[in-house]
Design goal:
With 199 residues, the protein is mostly helical. The chain contains nine helices and no strands. The protein has one domain. Helix 1 runs parallel beside helix 5. One of its GO terms (molecular function) is proton channel activity.
């Protein structure tokens, strides 16, 4: 299959998902600073989800840049990635309305981890394909970083269910902030930036 068809489909689906995110934002009951402040967790959850999906979109294009054709396996992995991503508006709304609820945070965490694992799978498949700009060393560096990334999110998931409910979303933020400092090199960073947030 020509990659342009999958790229166009992915662009369209992600654009719809990100649009739904903002449409799900609540309006303040009273138009005032206090009214907007009361929705601060809604905006926080929206911001994390939006920029995570946006980063994924940017880096999907970077990682596929050297590909001419794609195989059926990559198509199905991409569909799985989009399926999990399509649940972001739903879980973002849940967690923004019940930020300190462990089940709400855990639901968000499950989607985060599923997208993260799917990204690892996708990069492993990309590394096997001819014509890709990602080298074996980049794939290995990516997977090493992803091991830490996922470990932090798993820790956040456990803390969410046992001790501190907001830990899941904070763990996503921590991995996002550490992204620029912890990745092996600037050249590799340009290629493998996407899934590290979902991550």
């Amino acid at each position: 299959m020509n990659k342009e068809r999958l790229v166009a489909f992915t662009d369209a689906v992600l654009a719809i998902i990100m649009t739904i995110l903002v449409l799900e934002l609540k309006k303040p009951e009273v138009i005032s600073l206090a009214g907007f402040w009361a929705l601060r967790m809604n905006f926080f959850a929206y911001t994390i989800s939006f920029f995570w999906l946006g980063t994924m979109w940017v880096n999907l294009h970077r990682s596929w840049d050297g590909l001419e054709k794609i195989n059926n396996k990559l198509v199905w992995i991409s569909l799985l990635l989009l399926f999990f991503s399509s649940l972001f508006p739903y879980v973002t709304t849940i967690v923004s309305e019940s930020f300190n609820n462990p089940i709400a945070q855990a639901a968000y965490g499950v989607i985060v981890l599923l997208v993260s694992f799917t990204n690892v799978w996708m990069y492993a498949e990309l590394a096997k394909m001819s014509g890709t700009s990602m080298t074996k060393s980049m794939a290995k560096s990516h997977n090493r970083f992803m091991a830490w990334d996922i470990a932090i999110k798993l820790l956040g998931f456990i803390l969410t269910l046992t001790f501190y409910p907001p830990a899941m979303m904070w763990s996503v933020l921590i991995t996002a902030l550490s992204l620029g400092q912890n990745h092996p090199s600037a050249n590799e960073k340009a290629t493998v930036l996407m899934p590290l947030l979902f991550a």
